[in-house]
Design brief:
The chain is 18% helix and 47% strand. With 149 residues, it is an alpha+beta fold. The protein folds into 2 domains: 31 residues; 110 residues, Sandwich (Immunoglobulin-like), CATH 2.60.40.1930. The strands form 2 sheets. A 5-stranded mixed beta sheet has the order 3-9-8-5-6, with no helix packed on it. The chain is elongated.
Length: 149
């Protein structure tokens, strides 16, 4: 009977600590610029341990992803902003295409799963919310940027 009471007390204490930790983490989160992080995924084949066999038995399935974020999320005409690209399952030296809010495209090279591109807001663009599109192979992701007065 004593054992079950101490086990129940330990369980209640554990749940309390886990809940407090989760709430404390949320308190430290930066929610001033909280935006969803768009992600695109697609299956990619990578070689298994032997690396030379062409049979399907030695292939592992890896999921490739690409995501894009923009900092800062709010800009004025003529200002710059940075597009941050994060990938998984994409080979280094792969080219990523970034489309600016006016439709102009630029290319960057993925290195260690990341790439960045600094873009400028055209001085004649209308105020409002725009999407920046990043494409890597057949994958694409978007991030929002808002042009303010």
């Amino acid at each position: 009977m004593r054992f079950s009471k101490s086990l129940a007390a330990a369980g209640i204490l554990s749940i309390g600590l886990l809940t407090a930790t989760a709430l404390a983490g949320a308190a430290y989160a930066d929610t001033t610029h909280a935006e969803p992080r768009p992600t695109a995924t697609a299956p990619v084949h990578s070689l298994g341990n032997k690396g030379t066999s062409s049979t399907h038995d030695n292939h592992q399935h890896t999921t490739a992803t690409v995501s894009a974020t923009v900092t800062p999320g709010y800009v004025r005409r003529g200002q710059s902003y940075t597009v941050n690209i994060a990938t998984t399952g994409i080979s280094d030296a792969t080219t990523a295409t970034v489309a600016n809010i006016d439709g102009t495209t630029y290319t960057v090279t993925v290195d260690n799963g990341t790439a960045t591109k600094t873009l400028y807001v055209p001085s004649n663009i209308k105020y409002g919310s725009y999407q920046v599109t990043v494409t890597v192979g057949s994958l694409s992701a978007t991030a929002n940027v808002t042009v303010r007065r």
